[in-house]
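Rotation project, supervised by the postdoc (A.L.). Task for the rotation student: set up a whole-complex structure prediction and record inputs and outputs verbatim in this book. Inputs entered:
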Amino acid sequence: MNVLTDNFALYGEGFLGTVELTVYASLLALVLGFLMASFRVAPVGSFRAFGTVWVTILRNTPLTLLFFAVLLGLPRFGLVLPFQLFAVLALGCYTSAFICEVLRSGINTVPKGQGEAARSLGMSFGQTLGTVVLPQAFRSVIPPIGSTLIALAKNSAIAGAFSVTELLGTYKTLNELGYSIIWTFVWIAVGYLIITLSISALFHVLEKRYGVAR
Amino acid sequence: MPFPGWIVCADLDTDKWAGQRMAVDPLIELRNVNKHFGELHVLQDINLTVGRGEVVVVIGPSGSGKSTLCRAINRLETIESGTITLDGKPLPAEGKELAQLRAEVGMVFQSFNLFAHKTVLANVSLAQMKVRGRKRDEADKRSRDLLERVGLADQAPKYPAQLSGGQQQRVAIARALAMSPKALLFDEPTSALDPEMINEVLEVMQQLASEGMTMVVVTHEMGFARSAANRVVFMADGRIVEDRTPEEFFTAPESDRAKDFLSKILKH
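Outputs recorded:
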């Protein structure tokens, strides 16, 4: 028990690190995922191809490998950024591929005829997507997006291996200080639970508020 | 106007119907239009002219290409060869120009296709605001007038799922009218309706026809074809087989295909 009380500052720092990674990477993933989903249903062939390549590459690359590619690869091309920013980039891009596919499946739940009706009224592709298709797609994708973001929160642990301050990484210091490894991990797990359950709760509220009425 | 309407809307090889046609001011012209769905040649050298103010009813057995023809006119279906012109302008490719042109041609679908997440009023107002750039109150006012016209003024705050099929289809007609289109396309507007709801939709369509709206109507409602159409176009296997006045078509069809079709549907 005293592993928590003695090292509250350390835990707190790690916890905040994970929260920051999760929030920023989630925002990036949602924006990119939204963009890529729009690309994948666009009437322009080259956009669709770009979206498909994006999803195929990012979804099929192990996240650790992607971290290596971003954190060690990009500096070789002269792009040097703080490691935390690199970690947000890697996590956000990786998760955007999943968000994209979730959104696309949501788009497919909206009857095609409604899109045709909007276009037949003279609405552009962007207007059709923005005012008719996505608002309805959004309702059906709330639960799977929640799951994807929970996965993101847990995936952020990989950043710890690249010396980014986050929750799981705190175990190294605590271990060296000689605390019981079991209790160290129990409190780390509780930290992750707080984050993931908060995401669950948030999405539960969103679903109550905006979900499809049945 | 490249040709007077009565020349081009005839089957050019056998100009047997030319004498029966009014000389009209063409609004929609299809010239040698072809389209395949895989192996199926769904539109075969289609030539059709619809004059301003004309009501053309397209009938034929299922799979004859009549819905595809209707959808090709506002490019919901692309065509492989031939030209389609609307009011003298060829149908543009995907993009802003196409959107502008679609705003001029309303479409009513078999499955209504109302926006399920918006109220009836918002369904009718949405494109007015997005495409015509009207202010919300201005658009809503026009929407209420149109809903009044199709007899649904009191349904404005409801959602589409709360309405009957016939009511939904009348909302869809009001939505198309809100853009002040030059022509309306109807793709089997009553095929998804219960028999007792068909009439309320047909009455609205009759009304529009009598007000001089240019209409292309794909339907199985022979009564509507008889009473409201200026011309009946009979399609079979991707071709226009007959193109005549309803009077002539229903009393004395020329082709065996049309005779066979009519004998099957008019029997009971």
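Student's summary: Chain A is about 80% helix and 0% strand.
Supervisor addendum: The mean pLDDT of chain A is 90.
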